[in-house]
Design a protein that fits this description.
This protein has 171 residues and is mainly α. It contains 6 helices and no strands. The chain has 2 domains: 31 residues; 133 residues, Ferritin, core subunit, four-helix bundle (Ferritin), CATH 1.20.1260.10.
């Protein structure tokens, strides 16, 4: 009888240990990126990845404009791009981490030949970005991503206005 109780006790302890590991594994699976990312639509993920790439490009080019720009307006614009896009990138990274979405991390290597070429590129890029951010704000499905797009679209509009203003000074 004593051996039977000892065996039953060992089986119960083993069963509890297995159950504990199973629940721990389930909890970790729920916190894993793949578990979280399944709730984010393909459209929202695509937007987030494009926004991340665009933000990195804006920061990299802004740094170049700050360092190599000929006019004070271009240098100032570049500095604003670095500040604002770094802030937006940090916010996007935070949202992506919560959602389990892996964002690109390779910085682009864009180059430009003159202040005018840089500002012309910035006008064109911000026009495209504004349309994409507004589309996500209006048609995205994840509330956090939509809110990010809506808030950031306002800043992108400011950048576009500033780029056009700077562009007119360089003509």
């Amino acid at each position: 009888m004593k051996n039977t109780l000892t065996t039953i006790s060992r089986i119960c302890i083993l069963a509890l240990a297995v159950a504990s590991f199973s629940f721990a594994g389930l909890a970790m699976a729920q916190d894993s990126p793949t578990a979280k990312s399944s709730s984010v639509s393909v459209k929202d993920k695509t937007f987030m990845k494009k926004a991340a790439r665009g933000g990195m490009m804006e920061v990299a080019m802004g740094k170049l404009a700050e360092q190599n720009g000929q006019s004070d307006d271009v240098k100032s614009f570049g500095k604003r791009m670095v500040t604002d896009h770094s802030k937006a990138s940090d916010e996007l990274k935070s949202i992506a981490a919560k959602k389990g979405v892996k964002l690109p991390s390779k910085e682009p290597t864009e180059k430009w030949s003159s202040d005018k070429a840089y500002i012309n590129m910035m006008v064109k890029d911000h026009e495209k970005d504004l349309a994409e951010f507004q589309d996500e704000a209006n048609n995205g499905s994840d509330p956090d991503v939509k809110k990010f797009a809506e808030d950031t679209a306002k800043v992108v509009q400011e950048h576009l206005d500033l780029a056009k203003q700077t562009q007119s000074k360089l003509q």
